Amino acid sequence: MAPGIRLGATPPPPLGRMEVLLMSQTEVTPQSVRASATIKGPWRRVLTGLPYLLPAAVLYGAFIVYPMLDSVRLSFFKWSGFQTEKPQFVGLANYKRMFTADPVFFTAFRNSILWVVLSLLIPVVLSLLLALGLNHQIFGRNVLRSVFYIPSVFASITVAALWRWIYNPTFGIINAFLKAIGLGSWAQNWLGDPKIALYSVFIASIWTGVGFNMVLFLAGLQQVPKELQEAARVDGASAWQVFRNVTIPALRPTLVVVIILTIINSLKVYDLVVGMTGGGPAQSTQVLALWSYTQSFSNHNFGMGGAVATILLLISLALVVPYLIWTMRGEEQ
Amino acid sequence: MSGTKPSVARPRLTRGAAGRGSTARVNRRKPNYALIGLWIALVIGALAWLVPFAVMFLTSVKSNAEISQLPLLAAPKEWKWNNFSSAIETGNLWRTGLNSLIISVVKVPLGLFLAACAAYALARLRLPFSRTMWVVFAVGSMVPIQVGLGPLFKMMQRIGLLDNIWGLVLPYFAFGIPYQIFVLYGFFRSIPNELEESAKLDGAGTFRIFLQIVLPLSKASLAALFILDFVATWNEYAIAATLLQSQSNWTVPLAVLSFSAQHGTDYGPMNAFIMMSAIPVLIVYLLFQKYFVSGALAGAVKG
After folding, report:
1. Out of B128, B143, B150, whose CB is closest to A46?
2. How far is CA A314 from the centre of its chain?
3. Candidates A64, A222, A302; nearest CB to B150
4. Do B137 and B182 form a contact (C-beta atoms < 8 A)?
5. CA triplet B220, A58, B100: central angle to 5 degrees?
6. What gap in Å lies between CA B97 and CA B87, rounded to an integer?
7. CB within 8 Å: A215 and B67
8. What DSSP string describes B221-282?
9. Is the bond preceding residue A225 a cis peptide, omega within 30 degrees?
10. Which one of B140, B144, B292 has the shortest CB-CB distance to A65?
């Protein structure tokens, strides 16, 4: 008993020597070994594991977790962001102002939610259809896959610059095309009209976003059991029935991943809006991520910026945490 | 839709070997038309998808005069290749490109290695609360980075790393790591214990097991994460825009935005600049093209 406890109390020696110590004890008193193992086990594992974990954990804690929590803290303060000024505690005043006297916040909130919903409807369905089509053995399918995929390796900022040119009211290809086919009256100031600007930006996001989901779906389709599809077809199931009852259930895990990634990426939308409209015209394309930034940096109101960021954080957590719990349950099984 | 009924009714009449043969034959012949239709639809879709690229390229080689006179999708009468050189100069492409390259080359391998270390500790070293820690990392990979931009700026200002590409690398590590841990954790856990046990019997320490067994077995997933992280780092805008101020420290996305804001009416050079800004990620894409479209990448993404 005694040696085990003494060992536990002294600072642990380097790993190699400790193992030697433990082994030498085995011969003398097996009981003490068990005792020392229960005391030392987790402690030793922590010591072994910590050097692996620490660098990542420190970087993550310092540059992701801390700033995010600090945003929440700042949301209870009034602060211009200048170092010479001290933040001043104001309780819930920022939230009160945001919910009662900040119409832009509601626009941004509505646009963010709308973006999530539209993204779940249009690009997800479109990319599933593309994956189903390009899963067939057809001529040039790798080239076709590449064409749909390549836009997603472009930076959103680059895509934004490109699409601003496409939407250019005077020379842009869309208006030129409409004029060429005699629909000149449909030509619009796509990014300058508050009623349609958000949708114009959204179309650019479809162009870049579809490819990545398509690749995810294609990977998921490889896991659909071929024999089952064949068997169902032989039994006379229509293409739709095979799709409904064999393909979709097999695709479910992929579908969950695509949906969760789509939600996350929709809440993160920022670069595209900054690059195409900057949130305008008349704040009509504001989204939460950008409004938080604008409040902090352009309006010098870090408190309000923090409040908007806190709302964004809460929405994200509300959507993401159930997914993580679900994944963890799957891990346990 | 009208085809549904007969095909449901068919099996009752044609069960058995002969029937099976005939359905197979029907299947082989009938979808041919469907496949051709599908192919045509996909090609039309792909052409539509290519239009922005075509517009970009054809604009980049025209003068402003030709842009206003010729249709956008027409070839220029006079190819203005010097749009590219003037864009490089106006947009300071060498400088910003070098900054982006330095950041990516330092950040991507080192960040991935640190993430792999942490995932190994959580997945294989049976630390207490490892599952909880995994969840804490996973949450970070899914929350918009913009939530913390204000305080991040404040912090970097306090420690004097504002407007410094090495200061930018630190938060860049942090945004890649949680996601990579999230993915690698699943991979590392799926490695059978026996391999590790036998290495232990041979006297291998944890670090040797990590380097010689765990990492080589996860090569595919590490490669996929490497590519994804390279593209994400090269393209990152929000953090860079917050932390970098002077033009000599800018990364490529900042230069693109500034170009389109300040010289947006020089349509030719503007589009030339957009094209050139994407060259590194396009090279990465072309090198690993098989990998991207075959779904190997997607397997890694799902963890």
Report:
1. B128
2. 14
3. A302
4. yes
5. 60
6. 13
7. no
8. HHHHHHHHHHHHHHH--HHHHHH--SGGG--HHHHHHHHHHHSTT-HHHHHHHHHHHTHHHH
9. no
10. B140
Looking at the DSSP bridge assignments, the partners of residue A88 are A78
CB-based contact A274 B278, cutoff 8 Å:
no
How far is the C-alpha of A48 from the C-alpha of B205, rounded, in Å?
10
SS3 A77: strand
β strands within chain A, DSSP E: 77-78, 88-89
In this prediction, residue A40 carries a pLDDT of 61
Taking contacts as CB-CB distances below 8 angstroms, the residues of chain B near A66 are 148, 151, 155
Supply the DSSP string of B78-92, one letter for each residue: S--THHHHHHHHHTT
CB-based burial label for A239 (10 Å; 0-12, 13-18, 19+)? middle
List chain A residues with CB under 8 Å of B117.
52-53, 55-56
Nearest to B215 by CA among A184, A91, A295, A52: A52
User: Which tokens sit at B250?
Assistant: 């800018």
**How does the average pLDDT of chain B come out, rounded?**
82
Q: Would strands A88-89 and A77-78 be described as parallel, antiparallel, or unpaired?
A: antiparallel
Question: Using the beta-carbon criterion (under 8 Å), do A328 and B135 form an inter-chain contact?
Answer: yes
Mean pLDDT confidence for A123-128: 94
- State the greatest distance between any 2 C-alpha atoms of chain B, in Å, as a whole number: 81
- Find the length of chain B: 303
Cβ atoms of A80 and A304 within 8 Å: the answer is no
**Residue A109 pLDDT class (50, 70, 90 cuts):** very high
Residue type (1 letter), B300 = A
Residues B103 and B165 sit within 8 Å (Cβ to Cβ):
yes
- In angstroms, the CA B297 to CA A330 distance is 22
Pair A247, A75: CB distance under 8 Å: no
- Total count of residues recorded for chain A: 333
Q: Is A14 exposed, middle or buried (0-12, 13-18, 19+ CB in 10 A)?
A: exposed
Residues facing residue A77 across a β-bridge: A89
Within 8 A of B255 by CB-CB distance, chain A residues are none
Find the CB nearest A234 among B20, B285, B296. B20
pLDDT tens, B201-253?
888 888 888 888 888 888 888 888 888 899 999 999 999 999 998 888 999 99
Residue A204 CA to residue A200 CA, distance in Å, equals 7
Is 90 exceeded by the pLDDT of residue A112? yes
pTM of the model: 0.82
Closest chain B C-alpha to A148 CA, distance in angstroms = 7
B259: closest chain A residue by CA: A161
**Which residues, in sequence order, are CB contacts of A229 under 8 Å at separation 6+?**
A242, A246, A247
